[in-house]
Design goal:
- The protein is of the alpha/beta class.
- It is built from five helices and seven strands; from the N terminus they run ββαββαβαβαβα.
- The chain has one domain: 3-Layer(aba) Sandwich (Rossmann fold).
- Helix 4 links the parallel strand 6 and strand 7.
- Bound molecules: guanosine-5'-triphosphate and magnesium ion.
- Magnesium ion binds next to helix 1.
Amino acid sequence: MKINTNKAALLISAVRKEQYPATGMPEVAFIGRSNVGKSSMINKILNRKNFARVSQKPGKTVTINFYNIDDKLMLVDLPGYGYAQASHGERKKMTEIIGGYLSERRQLLQVILLVDCRHKPSVDDKDMAQAIKASGGQLVVFATKSDKLGKMALEKNLDMLIEELNLEDGDILIPFSTQSNEGAENFWDYIYDFIMEEEDE
Ligand SMILES: Nc1nc2c(ncn2[C@@H]2O[C@H](COP(=O)(O)OP(=O)(O)OP(=O)(O)O)[C@@H](O)[C@H]2O)c(=O)[nH]1
Ligand SMILES: [Mg+2]
């Protein structure tokens, strides 16, 4: 089944579960720290400029945004976690919004974890990686902003991420950049190989 990525529309920005769209479409959700590049990645893989709203300031996405892609796949842009400037109450609310979605969304087929290739993963990143595995899902990590590092430094940091996130055989780590386009094709290859394939069976 081929997906027409030109047919993309924001279905709804949701906070509460009652607001989640009532479709059975498979969902792929993007999760990671605030400012890691989740919304940017969605734009890149859809070949759009400012479709999913992006900001230099962390804490841009504060709702769960459901993007319907060709009535075949839903891309889900989650709010970021770990935004240092957020108040305790705001952080708690974000954790609840993210956790509520992850724990109960039955059509959620895959979580994509984004980490900044330049930095050591945070405790939250590590917890998230373990939670994805504990739930029985495949751990798929995109290391964002790979254009910010030279080739050697990137190789070194990918090794660092493998170690810090405890990546094992079967886990996937892909460098990604909105600037160099690195990783965008890999995303769709992954979707077709692992997600849509299962749907066709
Ligand atoms: N150089 C470079 N900058 C990037 C890349 N991806 C994202 N950015 C920048 O990083 C900043 C944050 O991007 P967003 O896509 O808004 O990040 P987010 O993870 O959605 O953030 P929240 O919505 O706050 O959780 C923006 O200034 C982007 O332009 C990349 O691959 N390379
Ligand atoms: Mg965002």
